[in-house]
Amino acid sequence: MKALVLEKYNHLVYKDVPDPEISSDEVLVQVKACGICGSDIHGFDGSTGRRIPPLIMGHEASGVIVKTGSNVKGWKAGDRITFDSTVYHQDDWFTLKGLYNLSDNREVFGVSPGTYKRNGAFAEYLAVPQHILYKIPENVTFEQAAMVESVAVALHSINISGLEPGNTTVVIGAGMIGVFVIKLLKISGASCIIAIDISEKQLERAEKAGADYTFLAEEDNLIEKIKSVTGNRGTDIAFEAVGKNPSANLAFEAVRKGGKIVLIGNITPVIEFPLQKVVTSELKVSGSCAICGEYEAVLNFIKMGRICVDDQISAVAPLSEGAAWFERLYKNEEDAGKVILVP
Ligand SMILES: [Zn+2]
């Protein structure tokens, strides 16, 4: 089959590789669409250490089943599917507690951090375990299904935030995940959505996605402006979708006393932590890791037209042109939307 292989850092080659073999619990998927994730771009040059070459990247994918293993039940050739980006063990202690996103020895498609290597979906075919498959509704396209992973990451952060209808919220970082957090907050009953970013362009996207107020991160009196639209208290919840020290600390400043901070971005390993403020304001701080069962709900949101993902797709291109698209995205720091590659 053809695949886009990261042969060494900053060097992708579209070439022939052996077809994947499937085990008895797996299906062979003919990949129809696979999105380029920000984490692929950050891994492409070796900076994250999570894409050690040689590797086929790609974890935001959809396709058609072409072959099933002998133990596969409920799935057949011809089924249109998408699948979780994470392969987890079903008998793991955390999985059995309903926390498969935290399970031990989980693997992400298209990732090789040193402890494992699992090829991903920038290829014609991929072997996928049956327990992580999801059926694509008839009126949902393969490209839309390739967007589900990003939306599911956003939905997971809202699910663990304890959001209640009427809550006031701020979303810091209006990249792909931040924009989907905004769209989901809109349909989850947030009474006020504030978006903050360092870029005007990203704030325009945030506004289109449904943000009620948008502010530049370096604006004067930013905290007062946030307070002025939240009863002089600050927001009930802050979602941080950047993962750097200034943006995370802005989240601590923007929430009200007793408020909650949900940290999604994770670019920086360590940040300053405002201990006294967290203690004296009784702030609740929670990390949000990947996805834990949100795929089906997101597929339904798309099927029912509750959420639009098409406006976040900036290009659909052949996989053979993947290397050029990676170059382009690598040079352009701004998150301009999702590029989807089609094998
Ligand atoms: Zn991703």
Describe the model.
- The chain has 343 residues and is an alpha/beta fold.
- The protein folds into 2 domains: 2-151 and 292-342, Quinone Oxidoreductase, Chain A, domain 1, CATH 3.90.180; 161-287, NAD(P)-binding Rossmann-like Domain (Rossmann fold).
- The protein is 27% helix and 28% strand.
- It contains 11 helices and 18 strands.
- It has helices at residues 38-44, 93-96, 142-146, 148-159, 176-188, 200-209, 222-228, 245-254, 275-280, 295-303, 322-331, and strands spanning 2-8, 11-16, 26-35, 55-56, 60-68, 80-83, 86-87, 107-108, 125-129, 133-135, 168-172, 192-197, 213-216, 235-240, 255-263, 284-287, 313-318, 338-342.
- The radius of gyration is 20 Å and the shape is globular.
- Zinc ion is lined by residues 37, 39, 59-60, 149.
Succession of helices and strands: EEEHEEEEHEEEHHEHEHEHEHEHEHEHE
Major sheet description: 7 strands, mixed
Sequence stretches where pLDDT stays below 50 over 5 or more residues: none
CATH architecture of the largest domain: Alpha-Beta Complex
Number of strands: 18
Determine the oligomeric state from the structure. single chain
How large is the count of helical segments?
11
Question: What is the CA-based Rg, rounded?
Answer: 20 Å
Short descriptors:
single chain; 343 residues; Rossmann fold; 2 domains; 6-stranded parallel β-sheet; 11 helices; 27% helix; binds zinc ion
Compact overview of the structure:
The chain has eleven helices and 18 strands. With 343 residues, the protein is an alpha/beta fold.
Topology:
Layout: E1 2-8, E2 11-16, E3 26-35, H1 38-44, E4 55-56, E5 60-68, E6 80-83, E7 86-87, H2 93-96, E8 107-108, E9 125-129, E10 133-135, H3 142-146, H4 148-159, E11 168-172, H5 176-188, E12 192-197, H6 200-209, E13 213-216, H7 222-228, E14 235-240, H8 245-254, E15 255-263, H9 275-280, E16 284-287, H10 295-303, E17 313-318, H11 322-331, E18 338-342
Parallel strand pairs: 11-12, 11-14, 12-13, 14-15, 15-16, 17-18
Antiparallel strand pairs: 1-2, 1-4, 3-5, 3-9, 3-18, 5-6, 6-10, 7-8
The chain binds zinc ion.
Zinc ion binds next to loops.
